[in-house]
Amino acid sequence: MAKRDYYEVLGVSKNATDAEIKSAFRKLAKEYHPDKNKGADAEEKFKEINEAYEVLSDANKRAHYDQFGHSDFNQFQNGAGFGGFDGFGSMFDDIFGSFFNGGAGFANQAQSNVDDINLGLRISFIESVKGCSKKIKFNRHVDCTACNGVGSKDPNDVIICTSCQGRGRKVKIVRTPFGEMKQEKACSSCKGEGKSFKSKCETCKAKKLMVESVELTVEIASGVDDGEVLVVKNKGNVIKGQRTDLYLHIQIERSRYFERHGLDIYSETIIDPILAIIGGTVEVVTTNGIKTIIIPPNTPVGKRFKISGAGIESKNNRLLKKRGDFYTTINYAKPVNLTEQEKAFLKELTKKTNHEVEEHRNTLLKEIK
Predict the structure, then answer these.
(1) Which residues hold Zn(2+) 1 (predicted)?
(2) Which residue has the higher pLDDT, 85 or 298?
(3) Which residues are annotated as a binding site?
(4) Confidence label for 330 from pLDDT (cuts 50, 70 and 90)
(5) Could you list the residue range(s) of the whole structural domain that residue 307 is in?
(6) Of the residues 221, 252, 283, which one is the last residue of a structural domain?
(7) Which of 193, 202, 235, 264 is within CB 3.0–4.6 Å of 324 for a Cys-Cys bond?
(8) How would DSSP label each residue in 10-72?
(9) CA nearest to 17, candidates 7, 9, 8, 3
(10) Binding site feature residues for Zn(2+)
(11) Would strands 326-332 and 264-271 be described as parallel, antiparallel, or unpaired?
């Protein structure tokens, strides 16, 4: 039997928005859910509705379907989903929440809390360019040394949780728009483990963990970028003998004098206006030391000079010695402490006709006539 068009199944147009598609799906799913609709064809209708929504709610799948139709979507009909309905996946859980969480959903709730540690690490701009060593302090969870991570005074004192009878989870009946449904949650008494103790460890209060303060020196490579994440292996939490990793999220402080774009660095160099007129050499302070550049005569404000290879070294091409460049933009310093003789000399210079000044003035006069 040929499949119906997915848009037809949900009763929406091909130009329907995501919100319209989702609204249509919710309405039809409630109407044909087998727990609520006992009709002979309810289950097949529900599967058809679910299949259509799974494709049309995904931008990539929808675009593919619009172009090729049903022929390329057989793969989306073969996966096992909730309650035996094909291709159900996590999509329906996302819409209707925990009412449909079965054993598979519980597995995520009861999983171990052995997590990696994430820390922000602030460094200066120059430290990011040159690399540095940073000493960090943080807290991590480790197995309780008093009970070796068991949670009980006596390792042989472990008993079955009486609250969940060792299942690690509890089931309760809740009322939903679809009728009464089962909802599973981790047992709050045993935290989903199914075990309890006659006498709790006095050190960790049966939490099995304790907090340990750690001081660590880490090496930050030159060229690290803002937002980059560095992984320090096996320096995270230590639980049940399992070591996790420490993730350092780099935060680079802004510099008043330098700015980074990729591997290139930009700055400003202030020079004497007299030097800009007559030309000469200038020492430019870069992040890799002092470099000398030649200033041609009549160098204007805003002129940018490039110093090749004076930028940041690429972390990905260290063997090739690939580096970015350093760019500096010229600005003029204000003349200070001029003698009367120097002022008189400059005054005489201003009397000389500057054709560019005259041309600009005449252009403006024509504009206002």
Answers:
(1) 144, 147, 201, 204
(2) 298
(3) 144, 147, 161, 164, 187, 190, 201, 204
(4) very high
(5) 259-350
(6) 252
(7) 264
(8) HT--TT--HHHHHHHHHHHHHHH-TTT---TTHHHHHHHHHHHHHHHTSHHHHHHHHHHGGGG
(9) 7
(10) 144, 147, 161, 164, 187, 190, 201, 204
(11) parallel
